Amino acid sequence: MSAWLPLAACVPLVAGALVPAVGRRRPQLAQGCALAASGWTVLATARLTRRLFMEGPFSYAMGGWAAPWGIELRFDAWSAASLFIALIMLAVLVYSGPYARAAIEPRRLPWYYSLLLLNLGGMVGFACAGDLFNLFVFMELVSVSSYALVAVGGGRIAALAAFKYLLAGAVSSVLVLFSVGVLHALTGSLNMADVALRLAAVESRGPVVLALAGLSAGFMLKAALFPVHLWLPDAHAAAPCPVSAVLSGLVVKVGIIGLLRTNAVFAGVDGLPMAAFGQVLAWLGALAIVAGALFALFQQDIKLMLAYSTVSNIGYIVLGLGLANHAALTGAGIHVLNHAIIKATLFLAVGAIIHQTGSRTLRELRGVGRMMPWSALAVSIGALSVAGLPPTAGFLGKWYIALGAFAAGQPGFAAVLLLGALLIFAYYIRILNAFYFRAPVDDNMRSVHEAPLPMLLPVLFLAALCILGGLFGRWPVALVAPAVERLAGGG
Amino acid sequence: MKRLLAAMVVAAAAIPMFAGVAGLPAPGDAGAPAHTRVAARYVEAGVRETGAQNLVTGVLLNYRAYDTFGEVMVIFAALAAVSAVLSRGPPARRPAEARPQVETSPVVAFVIRLTAPFIAIFGVMVILKGHLAPGGGFQGGVILGALLVLLSVVTGRGLERPLLSAPAARWLQAAGPLAFAVVGLFGLACAGTLLGYPAGPGADMLRAAMMLMLELGIGIGGAAIILWLFLQMRGE
Amino acid sequence: MGAALQNLDYFAFVILFCIGLHTLVARPNLLKKLLGLNIMETAVFAFIVTSGMVDGGAAPIVDGTVTGPFASPLPQALILTGIVVAVSISALALALIIEIYRQCGTIEADELKGVG
After folding, report:
1. How far is CA C93 from the centre of its chain?
2. Which of A76, A303, A351, C57 is buried deepest, with most CB atoms within 10 A?
3. Residues ≥6 apart with Cβ < 8 Å to B190
């Protein structure tokens, strides 16, 4: 049995454990190690995705013990997100060279790279998990590294934001663990496919509904769905910019993927109020779209703006999940991937601007479009993508979700989608207006020049992906299609 | 208003939990799925298949070894996290902080130095006996870690001159993940799957050795991590 | 209702969970919030272990001296991992509290509201 599947997660993890030992004296070694491990993960996940396209979903039994006695790893369409995770993390690691040297204390640098690798390995392991408790363990790995990464830059705001994030995340983890415990008490097993089979035979509905509610509430909290999104804006805005890219683009999607995977376990049980649950999700998603966009509109700090934009976009994804028909689920799945790329582009580009100018507010950043043309261009591309203009990557996901709203007979949601897009467009117009069409407030802007190459290249690469993702949109659609079939067909 | 909100949150959690938990199979019922589905095989075949009389160790290090690997990575992540949050610049750059020096009574110091070897032996014994009796890598590692913390307090050696020198400590902290990497790859080589164990007669010694290596890695790594967590939190 | 009374153990753990949740939500002191979190986690661990117990059963150590029913080793392995995870979170939370205290001079949430 080829061991690429477990090694895709294990290599970055073990590398993350070795980085502090290796890079103790020289942080360049730490970054080099991290780049190597991350590059390896890109190759491994690409290989696995290729195998997925050719053969369909496949599994790996850890230690040779078949499920449910051992832990099963499963690579299906949702697991293919791990390729995007690895790519974005590689871009972030390349970008981190100059950025982290300036923004993070030298003693903390090896730990910074270690935490990023642990985060990467945790997310890849999470995406490939076929076992409920294994899912929990890797989710915790992602969470612990994320909390610390928020605070790694130092400062009181970051420490406070990290603590709030930790409390919210730990509560959601406890809810998830409790629900896993309930499912184990009901079925005696921890393997997701096995539990799904056995749940159908359980007589009493109460504990099943409890487990569903616990898992859903836990993952909704992790995904920062309105109204439990309160931890997100401060955390994502206070973190160093490369970390914000990882958090907004990737870690928040862990909640979404968790929601998808665990809800699939309950698919075979009848008598569950799934339709009502879907409606609740759709409404919460719609609220998130509007609330996130409105909050973003009134921010002066550009990073807070981007963070609220993430809240809004999670709303789109959850709206698609709630509508639960073929088109809406396709849209949600595509948007999970596309938003990751878009948000990473935006945070990294904005980070380059902050790195070079030292300012974070729109007022102080006026006129930067002329001094840093490439970074501002990347922000523009990202802005157009988030607003959902064709042919950028953000358009397809929203289009499919709108189609799904019509197909479900709820065109009101499509109107909300449009409203959200207009609001998003309004605040990105503010940003672009400030960058290009306003005069600088003081002379400091004149001495600003473009970001160094290691920062610029990943930004431009991701910006190019924003456009390519829109032009070649049928590939993500084809990627998520089989998983959507299973989900939409079943429920 | 705040009290009302807190009460509402707790009620929102309590009501579904009570209602749901009431429908669970009774605890202690031997016919419940928790005992018949997966656990039955662990109980019947566990000693034969894993070689560990302590079935919990068998589950932790053999059947569900991947979870234990994740756990080892989580505790390393805790170390990375605490170090990332609390590490300060080199001492030369910071003014000498007036830290209140806690005087350790000579009686306390003497007693701890006297009992330290016995505690250490106990810790190692707990690690090694995990196979056969309650115990294991984490449990013994915590005992050793606590001992190291005690000795640090008593000898007054903080981050400038830690009990474990910084380079050695970094490698020891990675002992857990390294042990899993070595054993996992070895299992891949001789049993065909990552973290697999060789089967068949004559493999008993090999299996026991592999488990022992994992236990030691977990224990030593855990002890080094706990010491370092304490030193980081204590500051200079 | 009579059948539900069999699950008295579980009810006790739910009550413990709610005590922890209330502490986390209602207390302004950050350290107390962390303690509330720990109580919640402990309640969940106790719940999971209890689900693996057998009436009149023995600890899952098969050394040939006990032949009766054994408690399930699976939940015990699960909570061992869970405890380590909880310790990791607590360690990081404490480090953050230390850093917050260094930076802000207080760890009461009311006083910290004005910061940042």
Report:
1. 15
2. A351
3. B198, B206
User: Residue for token digits 């997310």?
Assistant: A123
pLDDT per residue, tens digit, chain A (491 aa), is 578 899 999 999 999 999 999 988 888 889 999 999 999 999 999 999 999 888 888 999 988 888 888 899 999 888 989 999 999 999 999 999 899 888 888 889 999 999 999 999 999 999 999 999 999 999 999 999 999 999 998 888 999 999 999 999 999 999 999 999 999 999 989 999 999 988 888 888 889 999 999 999 999 999 999 888 989 999 999 999 999 999 999 999 999 999 989 888 888 787 788 888 888 999 999 999 999 989 988 888 889 999 999 999 999 999 999 888 888 888 898 899 999 999 999 999 999 999 888 888 888 888 888 888 888 899 989 888 888 887 788 888 888 898 888 888 888 888 888 888 888 888 888 888 888 888 887 777 777 788 888 888 999 999 998 888 888 877 778 777 877 777 765 43
Cβ proximity of A181 and C44 under 8 Å: yes
Domains plus CATH for chain C? Answer: 2-112 (1.10.287.3510)
Q: What is the pTM of this model?
A: 0.94
* CA-only gyration radius of chain C, Å: 19
A1 is a domain residue: no
- CB spacing of C76 vs B26 below 8 angstroms: no
The answer to whether B58 contacts chain C (CB < 8 Å) is yes
C16 burial level (CB within 10 Å; 0-12, 13-18, 19+): middle
B20 near C CB under 8 A: no
Which two three-digit tokens encode residue B75? 């505790």
- Cα A97 to Cα A109, A324, A352, C5, C11: the distances in Å are 10, 42, 12, 61, 53
Q: Is A64 part of a structural domain of the chain?
A: no
**To which residue do tokens 């042990």 refer?**
B179
- Tokens representing residue A162 in the block: 């990290």
Q: Is the residue at A106 inside a domain?
A: no
* Tally of domains in chain A: 1
For residue B203, give the amino acid letter.
A
- What is the end-to-end Cα distance of chain B in Å, rounded? 43
Chain B contact for C54 (CB, 8 A cutoff)? yes
In a domain, A343, yes or no: yes
* Neighbour-count burial of A92, counting CB atoms closer than 10 A to its CB (0-12 exposed, 13-18 middle, 19+ buried): buried
B85/C60 CB distance under 8 A = no
For residue A29, give the DSSP letter: H
Of B47, B136, B233, which is closest to C62 when you measure between CB atoms? B47
Q: What is the DSSP letter of C27?
A: -
Residue A195 belongs to what H/E stretch?
helix A192-199
- The parent domain of residue A386 ranges over 282-491
CB contact under 8 A, B70 and C50: no
Token look-up 């490439």 returns A374
B/e letters for A54-63, b = 16+ CB within 10 Å, e = fewer, are eeebbbbbbb
CB B159 within 8 A of CB B99: no
